[in-house]
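Recap for those who missed Tuesday's class. We walked through two folding examples back to back. For each one, the amino acid string is listed first and its predicted structure tokens come directly after. Nothing is annotated here on purpose, so try labeling regions yourself before you check the end of the notes.
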Amino acid sequence: MVSPMIPMEKDEMGGPPWLRPLLKTSFFVPCEVHGDSAKSECNMYCLDCTGRALCSYCIPAHKDHHVVQIRRSSYHNVIRVSEVSKFIDISFIQTYIINSAKIVFLNGRPQPRPGKGVTNTCEICCRSLLDSFRFCSLGCKLEGMERDPHLTFTLRPKPYRPDSIHGSESDESSTPRKVRRTAASNHWIDHELRLAAPPHSDDEGGHLSNSISPGTPPIITYRTSPRKGKPRRAPQF
């Protein structure tokens, strides 16, 4: 029996209520329920139940819950950014590319002696980082929130951008100019045709036709002079 769904809002102590249980869960162990079945390794977690790790046979019982998959890199648990970023803000946490997928580590990996020339390290476990990051994992950021009250895992709404609906500014600025040039060209062509074309006898009041169609070229005849030669006399009898 699964637990009822719990709200996904931010916890008062920092972070959502499922984050701390997730970081403490043991993954890649045989399932307690389906241990006798093949491929029963636990590599998934239900954010609504916040219980033990789940295997593939446990998922049908959590079909209406939020379930994420945990992966492993160098014996450390990781999660894809595309999955976890749907629920929490992972800013200030360094990301990595593994098997063409961007991931973040669940827990810190202490590094007492940073490499030579390293100028930036994780504020919690001293792991070497790029200059634009402060933490190496979800767990380190969670611990860092106790020191910095401005840190949060709460997702902020994306700012409204009108160009996200109607296209980029470059598209909007270029398209009207093209339309105006085309309209002006058509107006000039129509005006020239009005001046050159004779009125149709079939139209009442001598109004010109506004239809644009290819004109028929005039028929030009050339007069040829008779061949000059010796005049021929009438035969004599």
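Example two. Treat it independently of the first, because the proteins are unrelated.
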Amino acid sequence: MIHGASPALVDRAIESGDSLPGGRGFAGRLPDGRSVRDVLGRYPVFTERSSAGWAFSPAELEDPVSFPAGHAGDERVWTLPDPPAFVAEDEATERVASALEASLGIDDDGLAVAFSGGVDSAVVASRLDAPLYVVGFEGSHDLEAARESASAMGRELRTIECTHTDIERAVPIVARATGRANAMDVGIALPLFLVAERAVEDGHDRLAVGQGADELFGGYEKVIRADHRVEADSVRGATREVIASLPEQLERDVLSIRAAGAEPVAPLLDDRVVDAALRLDGPMLATEGERKRVFRRAARGFVPAEIADREKKAVQYGSLIAREIDRLARRAGYKRRMDDHVTQYVESLLE
């Protein structure tokens, strides 16, 4: 069984070595018994450490190991392409915009959109006839940004105002679903789970997300500075290092959304978008004054300029969920002077 693609497409990709064969990734088990996972790890799959068992969720296995991206069986079949860079920024912007347009031509039946008000989720929402959902604590940056962006786009917004009760209830669910209890992963997973949960309650079974844009298009400070956090000495090289982190991140995100009963849809991780992003270089990706430069220019064809240019906080901070998990941990006796106190708190909830 394969998630994300047909076995025939995967077979053709293996034979050709084409790492971007079309679609939004795949993972699973082929009829010949080989596990497979696309080059960006856009879908997770797991195997038993000491047996032939496999599953799409680590919770279904006794001793699960994440199957590596780019592999078919024991062999690495696909690696990230390194196409020639665009020469002109105008051409790059046009190609990215065209890829975005194509990626958003998806069936929106049963679909909801995780909407934070930033450029990534706004571009996703722009072409989809689907309700928009945002989650955050009262007074959070994400609630305010989502309201402003939804208003600018003339769209209705469904707001989920988070409470401590929501956090205490949801933390064990996402920690078990993802197999991760550390503060960072739980803080990122919780907003996705809570949005997906509400969308499912409202009758939707798929959740469109803006994942991938920051990694593909130069959305991180470390790619601009090429500092100690990356080995590369160029913006393009640093961006490729960040892209290599996607399999681990997407595993968490997909499992969190599925834990709520929804299936994630990530248009910005479409192969056509990935191919266009890999052709960007230097200031087309990011400069000291502007991250995701070409992506933002392309986004102006989809959303109002004020949204395309808006900077946004990471979801765990913009929603205030990370802050409130920390607060709950300290109330439960896990003080900041303790080693990794939030993780200890999460583990206590699992007990």
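Answers for example two:
The CA atoms of residues 54 and 60 lie 8 Å apart.
The chain has a mean pLDDT of 92.
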